[in-house]
Write a structure and sequence with these properties.
Elements: E1 2-7, H1 13-25, E2 29-34, H2 38-41, H3 44-51, E3 56-57, H4 72-79, E4 82-88, H5 90-97, H6 104-111, E5 116-120, H7 124-128, H8 130-141, E6 145-146, E7 150-153, E8 159-163, H9 167-178, E9 189-194, E10 199-200, E11 206-207, H10 214-225, E12 229-234, E13 245-248, H11 252-263, E14 268-271, E15 278-280, E16 299-301, H12 305-311, E17 318-325, H13 329-339, E18 344-349, E19 360-367, E20 370-371, E21 375-379, H14 380-401
Helix pairs in contact: 1-3, 1-9, 4-6, 5-8, 10-14
Bound molecules: flavin mononucleotide (FMN).
Flavin mononucleotide is lined by residues 8-12, 35, 37-38, 87, 89-92, 121-122, 126.
């Protein structure tokens, strides 16, 4: 992708260097535009070195506009697949919302037809000011996207909202807005479970499994990118994906409760979580002490989330599950499909540690018609997109057959 990264004069400008590096290392072309104030915080040399592209805009040697045979602002406006402004200052937000074109960046923002993404960062008082919020609302009304700032300790020493969103989250938002759309699932409401559950024995010990939640998170992103409204019920430690409503849970019981309260409003469910099948029978409020001789732990079954949701299903709701099997994986998965009343099950072969935490993976979908062509091997982000494409095609044919 070809990304124009506008860098105005905010204290978080140094983080844009990291963002530019991240995107460039990911194979994207990144051309930075510094405003005059931006150039006081970070240098063109840093940015052009990190991106292997020229840095445009304010330049201590050449000033804002250079004598150049090409018309730079039009060339950049056309070159961009997406223009991102990071960190977006109150000043440049205000200018763009009002159609001002006082420097290279604001002129490119007016001239481009590419999607525009803002990642604001500023003092809490500035962020909360109605003028800034009204300007952002105006930008949204032009179809621009905004990655809202986080809460936290700001450079000015104040605590509150206005801290630049995390660099990986901004990178993700850039890639999503700049990518051609996946097959459309616009408006579909999808509930996704992901990650391991943890069943506590006492305040320090827990029973869990080797799932990281990567595949479920990538699925949440891929459904989001296809236009679905995603609710993610997430166990484990991975960071929440951008643009997805996420609820964190710990145990299987918590995951079930979070799903139950959201299930009625969903069109479908993707159960990608690795839910513990058993939990310790009792929870000890104090750390269990070492005993003498052999010790045993009594286990009881955890609730079956897919089966419970399947029993509460209303007509038209679809359910896709996952199976991680270490032997006879297609047979076991086909049995699970039937037993839990799923529409499809995606089978991982977890033999020899494949699937859990691995970067590339293969999934075989099984439906009532039997095993379908395998998807992958692909890195999990692309595999998730392949799953969404496969399922969207299937939903289309199911819908047309209804
Ligand atoms: C040390 C310092 C830090 C600043 N940080 C911010 C900031 O985080 N966000 C912001 O909106 N403005 C910030 N400003 C104010 C902008 O630099 C100022 O409004 C400037 O005119 C912005 O110009 P630009 O938007 O064209 O880059 C800061 C100013 C200084 C001196």
């Amino acid at each position: 992708m070809q990304i124009v990264l506008g860098i105005p004069g905010g204290i978080a400008a140094y983080k844009s260097a990291d963002l530019a590096r991240l995107l460039a290392n990911d194979g994207h072309r990144v051309r930075c535009i510094l405003t005059e104030a931006g150039a006081r915080f970070i240098t063109p040399l840093t940015l052009s070195s990190l991106t292997a592209e020229p840095c445009y805009g304010a330049n201590p040697d050449q000033g804002e506009w250079r004598a150049n045979p090409s018309i730079e602002h039009i060339e950049l406006a056309r070159w961009a697949d997406l223009v991102a402004v990071v960190p977006a200052t109150a000043d440049v937000i205000g200018k763009a919302a009002n159609g001002l074109a006082t420097d290279l960046l604001t002129t490119v923002l007016l001239a481009t037809r590419a999607p525009i993404l803002w990642a604001p960062a500023m003092n809490t008082g500035m962020w909360g000011h109605p003028a800034v919020q009204a300007n952002l609302e105006r930008l949204r009304s032009f179809g621009h996207s905004v990655v809202d700032p986080d809460d936290g300790l700001l450079a000015c020493g104040e605590e509150g909202s206005g801290k630049l969103a995390q660099v990986p989250a901004i990178a993700e938002a850039i890639l999503m807005y700049g990518s051609p759309k996946l097959r459309s699932l616009d408006g579909r409401r999808v509930l996704i479970t992901a990650g391991p559950t943890r069943e506590d024995l006492d305040p320090v010990r827990t029973l869990t499994n080797r799932s990281t939640g990567t595949m479920g998170l990538e699925l949440a992103r891929a459904f989001r990118d296809a236009g679905a409204r995603v609710q993610l019920v997430l166990g484990g430690d991975l960071p929440e994906p951008w643009g997805v409503e996420t609820v964190r849970v710990r145990s299987a019981q918590e995951m079930l409760a979070a799903c139950q309260s959201r299930w009625a409003a969903a069109d479908g469910l993707v159960g990608a979580a690795a839910v513990a099948d058993q939990r310790p029978e009792t929870y000890a409020a104090e750390k269990v002490k070492k005993g003498e001789g052999p010790e045993t732990m009594a286990l009881v079954r955890t609730p079956d989330i897919l089966a419970t949701l399947s029993a509460a299903r209303r007509p038209g709701q679809w359910m896709v599950g996952f199976a991680a099997e270490s032997e006879k994986h297609l047979d076991h998965a086909a049995a699970k499909l039937q037993k839990k009343g799923l529409d499809a099950i995606l089978v991982n072969d977890v033999q020899r540690g494949r699937a859990f935490g691995a970067q590339a993976n293969t999934l075989t979908p099984i439906t009532a018609e039997g095993p379908q062509a395998s998807l992958g091997p692909l890195p999990k982000d692309l595999l998730a997109r392949a799953v969404v494409q496969w399922w969207a095609r299937r939903l289309e044919s199911l819908d047309s057959g209804r």
